[in-house]
Amino acid sequence: MLLSSNLAPRAQYYPYIDGLRALAVLSVLIYHLHGPWLPGGFVGVDVFFVISGFVVSASIASFKGQGIWQFLTFFYARRLRRIAPALIVCLLVTAVLTGLLIPPSWLSAENQKTGLYAFFGLSNFALAKSGRDYFAPTTDFNPYTHTWSLAVEEQFYLVFPFLFLAWTRGGRGRALSAALVAGTLLASLGWGWWQSQASPVQAYFLTPSRFWELAAGVLLYQLISHSSQRIISSKHASGVRGIFGAVSLLSILAAFAVSASTRFPVPGVLPAVIGTLGVIWSLHHHPELKRLHGLLGNRSLVFVGRISYSLYLWHWPVFVLFRWTWGLESLLPRVLAIALAFVLALASWRFVENPIRYGRGLSRIPQGAVIAGSLLVVTVGSLGAKVIADNQHRLSFSTVSRNPEIWYPHVSPTNVEDPDCNAEPERQTIAGGRLLIYSPKGCVQPRQLSNSSIYVIGDSHAMAYEGLLKQYAIHRTTRIYAYTNGGCPFISLQPSRDLDDARCRHYTDAALSDLQTRLRPGDVLFLPSLRLPRFSDQWIYFGQEQARSQMFGARADAGRRRSVAFAVATLRDIAQRGVHIVLEGPKPVFEAPPFRCADWFNRANPICAPGFSVPRSLLDAFRQPVLQAFERIAQQVPDVSVWDPYPLLCPEEQCQAWRDGQPLFLDGDHISGSGNKLLLPSFTEAMDARLGIHSRAAGR
What we know:
- This protein is of the alpha/beta class and 700 residues long.
- The protein has 30 helices and eleven strands.
- The strands form three sheets. A seven-stranded mixed beta sheet has the order 1-2-4-3-5-6-8, sandwiched between helices. It has a two-stranded antiparallel sheet with strand order 7-9. Strands 10-11 form a two-stranded antiparallel sheet.
- α3 runs parallel beside α14 (308-324), α7 (172-198) runs antiparallel to α9 (211-227) and α14 packs antiparallel against α15.
């Protein structure tokens, strides 16, 4: 095996490169702290991409070994020593803090997966598959979101050495390598341009539409190296070069200020990429441009540039953890978050990055051993992060994580008399959604299933009743079919949500088609949904005025008329088959999410400020149009009734999200595990009446 110390000299140091890195990382940091301060700051990542392509080419261009294997081990050992140590430490610490402080929820649903993928340089795939736009506010609550750019670089490095190998051979090999780099650059640029319009989320996160940015840095290095001997230095040429470099730097700064998320990454990223290429072309091997070198090479910028990798790694999880706990909306937490990010970055740079990257003892380890050891550490680190995530309910500081049966509706309480008896669902896929089939399993005294079944169609608000459905399936020996697809309600009386969304209509049509093949006379179709506008979501407060504009007025009335017509046309055929249709009355909605405010470390978060009490009179007014719509449906569809949980959830003049110290709601509008327990007797009575099983239930 070859040693890392005898293949190539340490690359020459260029202070202006660290100056550019500093501008890039500071722009990203400011954007992530508060986007409006620097609306285009996110393109700092694209500046990093170009720099990385250029620097990695310069660092291995002097490779002196022979053979593909020597070159590959040399390259990958260097990259792993540069990237892996600080990344793994950051991911593990973030996994611990996430497990301690961030409870499971829809808002955090992608966090664990993204973190585990990040160990292997694949987090951009997890983020792209989630469908959550980088610019959506929900992205700000995933402490691993920023690793997408590292994943792009790591995936680029899987291809780069095969494009660059011929360059190290000299002669015609250099022309061949440049041609390969240019070809892949153009292909990636074209793909990115098309993908930015056709599928912006995938275009933003995935490597094929970003490859060209790193390749541009590589090609620039090759062009500079090829033409450096023919450049004739003169005062006039230096002046032109200096002007070009200054304009290029201004292009980068302008991109930080004005870049927008539309038409991104291509063509939106072009000013930042072209500007970075221009600055490097102007300054590389041109010390006579003293003003530009002095500007980008000043001590402060260079220092930030040197710690830029660790600062990029640490700033984002620090900001996200502040958002989950204290908040990041006011001056003091922002100052503290920045200070903590710098402290952690300095510690990482001093005690992790530099010792492993430049340590003399480690430089003598064979390249193959460096690669194997790095992969082993990555694997062990990912397993450690998974163990932390799987045991979050034991380790967490959060009362939400430690008491899942109180907070989460899918966690059913254990039957002390028959602990093995459960109704965990059988899962099937219907047009991209799920069909969950609940029926009793493992019970000591098996009983014959009821001849009639209950069917449910809806989104997360239907599944917020999962605990209740499981308990009913067990206690009444009834099979329950639940068709669900996140974000796709059914008869919510808000047509923008369940009529005008093509994806949801496709799923709903498929679910109805499957349901029609199963329904029998005497069955029940239960239709829960969020039918009031939200006052808040898990990450933001909307306010009452926005809710009023959605609920009242000519446009809202017209929308409900459309929804009523759809409901009548859809439900009439089902009812005529002898199926009992039960609509869920509108539940209370609240202005703050209880699960975000349940602990000492998050109660002061600004998301909690609106409180957990809403006047009943206000909600009565919001409910009235929905109840009137129910009446119109019942007048045209036989055997339609309403099960209304509202009186139980709001028995007094003020509706409360908490009762007797326990949450009735997980967030501003989803029922909690405790809420399910409270509503179970009422739901049981309502379903028993429709299924006609009073006497059978009493006989048991």
